[in-house]
Amino acid sequence: MLNPKIQEALNEQINAEFWSAYLYLAMAMHFESEGHAGVANWFRIQFKEEQAHAEIFINYIVSRGGRVVLKPIAEVPQTWASPLAAFEDTLAHEQKVTAMINALYALAEEHRDYATRGKLDWFVAEQVEEEETAQGLIDRLKLTGDNGLALYMLDSELAARVFNVPAPLQSAE
Ligand code: MG
Q1: How far is the CA of 22 from the centre of ligand 1 (A)?
Q2: In degrees, to the nearest 5, what angle opens at C-alpha 57 toward C-alphas 51 and 59?
Q3: What does the pLDDT read at residue 172?
Q4: Separation of 140 CA from ligand 1 center, angstroms?
Q5: Measured in angstroms, how far is the CA atom of residue 145 from the centroid of ligand 1?
Q6: 123: CA distance to ligand 1 center in Å?
Q7: pTM beyond cutoff 0.90
Q8: Residue pLDDT, tens place only, 8-32
Q9: What is the DSSP string of 83-110?
């Protein structure tokens, strides 16, 4: 039986993951319309990853006999001045998500809910990766500056990103 406070926090996290998905889909649509096909593809994959994150939490609540509550998704920004601005927003957002995951982890420890704490381990590692990736792309875009050829090459690289089903969902299948 899930502690009600933990269940509520997990449901908040589901909402945050869907908000993230919505944010990255908005970024994908923006860069699609701006002709940055690779950047748009990268954010479309990010959109799918965030939906997968939500699904991992959904499956977990179900497995614990809890109740999933789907709350409204708040409005997201729709335009960005440049790919660099979008990746800077991505990093800032992922840092907030990391803080949420850490708070959930602390809550699970406070209630001695070791099953939830264990489930969160994957997310702790995932957040390190999310922040590292966003920071890496920010660094590269800063190096690239206004160099058209370098931007074209980076866009082509981002166009090659494909979606991989996250490990916790693979084992659930
Ligand atoms: Mg996420």
Answers
A1: 11
A2: 100
A3: 52
A4: 23
A5: 29
A6: 8
A7: yes
A8: 999 999 999 999 999 999 999 999 9
A9: HHHHHHHHHHHHHHHHHHHHHHHHHHHH
Which amino acid is located at 115 in the chain?
Answer: A
Residue-level pLDDT at 1: 84
Residues near 41 by beta carbon (within 8 Å), at least 6 away in sequence: 28, 158, 159, 161
The phi, psi pair for 73, rounded to 5°, reads -95, 120
pLDDT at 44: 98
Distance CA 146, CA 26 (A): 24
Distance, in Å, from the CA atom of 5 to the CA atom of 171, rounded to the nearest integer, reads 27
Rounded CA-CA distance 107/133 in Å is 27
- Residue 142's Cβ-count burial label (10 Å; 0-12, 13-18, 19+) is exposed
- Which residue is associated with the tokens 């084992």? 171
Q: Is 33 helix (H, G, I), strand (E, B) or coil?
A: helix
Residue by residue, DSSP assigns 142-169 as HHHTT-HHHHHHHHHHHHT------HHH
Q: At 139, phi and psi to the nearest 5?
A: -60, -45
In this structure, what token pair is assigned to residue 36? 């940055």
Residues of the chain with pLDDT under 70: 171-173
Burial of 33 (0-12, 13-18, 19+ CB in 10 A): exposed
